[in-house]
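Database export, one record per block. Field names are fixed; values are copied verbatim from the stored entry.
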Amino acid sequence: MTKRQWKNIKEWTKFALAIACVIVFIVFFIFNLWSPLKKSVDVVVPRGVSVSGISNYLYNNHIIKSKDLFYFSIKLNGGKIQAGEYDIPRGAGVWTIASMLAHGRVATTTVTIPEGFTIIQTKNMLKKLPYLNGDVDCDKSVPVCNLQDGDIFPDTYRVARGTSRLAVLDLAHKKMESVKNSFSKSKIPSPLKNWNEVLILASIVQKETPLKREMPIVASVYLNRLRTDMKLQACPTVVYALTRGEGDMHGEPLLSGHLKLVSPYNTYINKGLPPKPIANVGTDAIRAVLNPSLTNYLYFVADGRGGHHFSHDYSEHQKYHEEWRVIKKELNK
């Protein structure tokens, strides 16, 4: 091969590569950059809708520029679309949109159930979330509609937009069952007898303190009281009874008269644990009950700094209690 022939081959190769690059760019532009979308849009794909049906919808609403290109892109992505709600980003091309619909990359939302929330509080919260569907109540014969406090696990759940509120509750219930299984081999401290009693005490601990470091100490106080046949005298149990299971006073103070409320949940007038959990608990509260601190504390009161003072005799407790009265009086001002 002569030098001239070799030179010609190199020039034609460069030319062919240039043409190929232009073609690739044009294809890339048409499928990915050629978009009428100036802002993101929500698209709901109903169950059973055809590719041509959704293609017409997207074209008529100026979401894609070509129905044929969309149909071709769907074919290259498996030929089917999945129902759901989609968040189509600004500037998305026909290939991006087709890929999202073909692979079910639906829009999602997060639902956070705080630790210590009751079932009533959780349902009220779910009702207010805009990206969920359906009611929170149904026939009590359905398990998810018969949930009680202690049955769901407080956590952050990522779900598809449009998920039913009952499905979120069911998801939290299944997570709680999984958590329960993870603690199945843990030794239950005396005088607690079973998992239900662990959950009951954990729910009281959960409501008494938000501090992870304090939870084992609070658990030890209540276990010490149970062992010495003292009343638990836990204010959250009175709040639970007073609010009929909601567990929130909405800023109203708990008064001394409330402590006389006749209820099986009032641990100021009844010895032992209340009949059921008074809130839904996280793993920290459960671990605190299963692995309590080794203390001889029988009393605790708020210290005004977000924590508590603990004491083993009543005179010391009274001193801390008086300090808290002064702090609370100042706070109320």
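Remark 1: Strands lie at 41-45, 84-88, 108-112, 156-160, 299-302, 308-311.
Remark 2: The mean pLDDT is 89.
End of record.
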